[in-house]
């Protein structure tokens, strides 16, 4: 029997299991230090594979839709941060200050790649433009996200125990850990692209395993510092409400802008699914660079909630778009 679209997917269940394991048996001491080193290598491999998957033909085909790309970038790096900042009087009472820091961090993240492209394909949208927009968002996020963190979260970053307060140093560390492996993978695509495509199912486990490893190390450090003792149940419920509000505003705004600007239905689909997404795959590794280990758990929690919510809601929207285009 097929699983309901409203139930969590396998990866979300794995995330929940990882958080549970880290809560019951958190890594500490020498084990935590060893996991930190393994995590850095796993994240580098993750972005290396992302680079190897990116087709240059798709980039060239998608570049002609520059108006669409500008709107996607504006939604991702302007609209979302403005919403998180402007709605502070409404959002902050619903959650703890630590979770609100995580919400602001969520707002400055780049768009996700895999799910945005998958939903665009399901809804019969502009696939080349979606690949170009989502990939460009990831690359731009390596520079823009640390800048926005320094602009919007200077006090919160210090209170959370930022690993490095120098924005330029943060950009350099993220470039070294994420961008360099990404570019290396893309440059090697002519030789390894076929292998990566043939082993897509197996390599997906590497993608997801890398994220799960980062989540485990992050929540282990947070649990050791007393995360769950400081986080009331009402704040978790408030977090769900906040994520729902942000996602609804993003979806409504992108749909309205697409129709206002006269985009085709295919381009509207691309804007809706690329402009409303936030990347768990990029957000968790970046948080490890931008914030101290003990603070990362609470900061990435909003990303995990938003991740599951965007998958469920966009799954329904993609099916509706597909029926409309088919008709």
Automatic annotation (TrEMBL):
The chain crosses the membrane at residues 37-54, 66-87, 99-122, 129-151, 209-228, 234-258, 286-306. Keywords: Membrane, Transmembrane, Transmembrane helix. GO terms for cellular component: plasma membrane. It comes from the Bacteria. InterPro entries: Na+/solute_symporter_sf, Put_Na-Bile_cotransptr. Gene3D superfamilies: 1.20.1530.20. This is Sodium/bile acid cotransporter 7. It comes from Acidovorax delafieldii. The lineage of its organism: Bacteria, Pseudomonadati, Pseudomonadota, Betaproteobacteria, Burkholderiales.
